[in-house]
Structure formats: C-alpha cells, structure tokens
Amino acid sequence: MSNLAFLCNSNSWGGLEMNILKMLKWIQSEGKQVILFCPPYSKIAHQAQQAGIAVYPFKQKIKFIDFSAAYRIVKTLKSLKIRYLFLSQSNEIATGVMVKLWVGKEHGLRLIYFQQMMIGIKKKDWLHNFMYQKLDSWIVPLPTVVENVLRYTQLPNEKIELIPLCIETERFIHKKYTKAEARKMFRLPEEGLIVGIVGRIDRQKGQDFLIKALHIIKQKGISFYVAFFGEETKGEEGTYLPYLQSLVHELGLEDLVFFKPFVEDTSLAYACLDVFVMASWQETFGMVTIEAMATGLPVVGAYSGGTKDLIKEYQNGLFFDAKSPDSLALQLIKLIKSNKLRDVLASNALESVKSQFSHNVFLNNMSFLIKKLQ
C-alpha cells in the first residue's frame, strides 16, 4: 500500500472522526506513511498526534471550497510525493477537486471520497456531476449506501467501491472484565437481564422506543432492566435527555432504567449487557452494532438504514419495525424467554463480525483499491 493522506475538516469527535483515526492507525501499523489534514486544536488532531501520525493544520474557512487551504494541501502533497488523498465529508469534495486540478496531471493524484453519511437530497446538477467526475473512487460501507448513492447522484457504478467500516475484533472478543465486574463499576444491578443502547443520547438514536417497549413488556408481567451509555449530542444539551427522564418517571420505570455516561472503552459498556438494541432509524452503518456483535451480544435492530445489511434475521440478530415500541417489545420478549435463541444469535453474530468486519479485512480491501487505482 502506498503513502496516503486523509482530509478531515471537523472539530467534532464522533463516529466519523473516530473511524478516520482508526483507519490511519491501521494503515500506519502496516509500515506506510499516513498524514492527516485537519483543524488545529481539534480532538482528532490531538488523538492523531498522540498516535504518532503526522498532522498538518487545515481549516476550511469557506463552507464548500477554500482556495488558500487547497493551495497548502497541494504544496504538502507535492513535497511528500503523496498520490492518494482521501476525503471524509461531502463538503470537502470541492476543495479536493481544486487540489487535484492544481497539483497537475503529472503528479497523478488519486482522489477518493469515503462516504459515512447517507445522502438526503438529489445531487445530479452540473456542478455536482463535474466534481464527482474528478473523483477516482467513491467508497461506501454497505450495499444500502450503494443504493443511496445511485439514487441521489449520477456517479458511474464502476467508481463505487464497497469497503465496510471495521473494528479491531480482539478488543471486544477478549473481555477485560466479567459481567459482574463491569456492572459493579457502573453501579448496575448484579442480577437480572439488562438490555441496552450504547451511543449518543439523541432523538434520532431512538432511546425513547426502548423505554416505551420496557413499559409494554412490564405490563405483561415480564421484568428486566434498561441501561443507556452515552452523552447528549453537543449543542443539544438539556433537550432530549430531560424528555427521556420525564418519560421514565411518567411510566413508573425509575427502578428499571439507568443513564450512564459515555465511556471511551465501549467494551466495558457491552460487558454489562445481555441484549443490545440498535433503535436508530437513520443509521448509515452503526459501528456500535458490530461492536456489540463482536462482544457476543444478541442484537435487535430497527429495519432501516445500514442496519438492514448488518443483521440477518434469526441468524445473527432480530429486526423490529423502525419507530415501533410494540414491534421492539415483541422481539425482546422472544429473547428474554429463550436463552437458546440468545446464545445462537450471539454466537453467529460473533462469527459474522470476525469474517466481514475485522480491521484486517479493511486493510486487504484498501490494499486492493490502491492497486486498482495505480
């Protein structure tokens, strides 16, 4: 694999930025030079520097294209003789195209966009067509995202490359703590079944559907606990979380629902759980879904977005109708009542992650793509 550069013009620290950092670390571990263009003083800049990754300050002051920022990238790519530039967000494509035009044909720059978010509006106008023509490859993580790209753009199918987002499976397979130890750390009940969601406290993540499903199941005389691990979305503090807490109080579930803070090592959160729920109805991929699978948890996911590609019904998980607490309750009851079903789904889930979503799979796919673009 050749030397690569990644552009990530983000001051946030969420799934997208974490995925970029993981990719950089994995590629660097193969002995390749990787550099990162990102805003100075951002969380991803700090984390990359700690990992020994070369960081070059980049701040796109204009939303879609910044000529001075593009020029600085051109100078760096030429001086380091780097021929592959990966873009991580759609609003970086215009700047990336400008870089490719300025760097010149003789440099042979390959421009690759790594899509991690669904496209929501049509982008078939002449300007988008021009920019997309300049891309050498467009990476998508799942077949559902391929459909999304073909629906909303006029990108030629041959430019689309399917490369799933991946994880270091060993981190989750080899548990640091037992269930009892993990629950003690988070002050969760030592006995009883716990169903949980790991991720941002956000309306689109659907935590309220799990609370409502718990209420439905409790009325049937079946009891279990629910745990949420995560912080509120930045800039939206004091909105959705108070609603969830009010809902818990209104339904009389205070003794059954727990809100726990975000934890850097998510494997600790999964270690507390017996069942994982992916309730989001707008999830492009859902890293937490494959992390939960790698931990050996049965997963119940909303039949929507990228989750449709990750779960095989009754093989490695169960589906419920998106935004439907009744449908979620029905599937949870099946798992609560059957230890055998939980064990079968968990075992199959682990095997599917090891074969499809290991970071070694990612490195092999990337190596194949680079050879293809040479």
From TrEMBL:
Tree of life domain: Bacteria
Taxonomic lineage is: Bacteria, Pseudomonadati, Bacteroidota, Cytophagia, Cytophagales
Question: What's the protein called, per UniProt?
Answer: Glycosyltransferase involved in cell wall bisynthesis
Q: Which UniProt keywords apply?
A: Transferase
The answer to whether UniProt assigns keyword Repressor to this entry is no
Under the heading PANTHER family, the entry gives:
SULFOQUINOVOSYL TRANSFERASE SQD2 (PTHR45947:SF3)
> Where does this protein come from, organism-wise?
Thermoflexibacter ruber
Q: Which GO terms describe its molecular function?
A: hexosyltransferase activity
Query: Where do the Glycosyl transferase family domain residues begin and end?
Result: 180-349
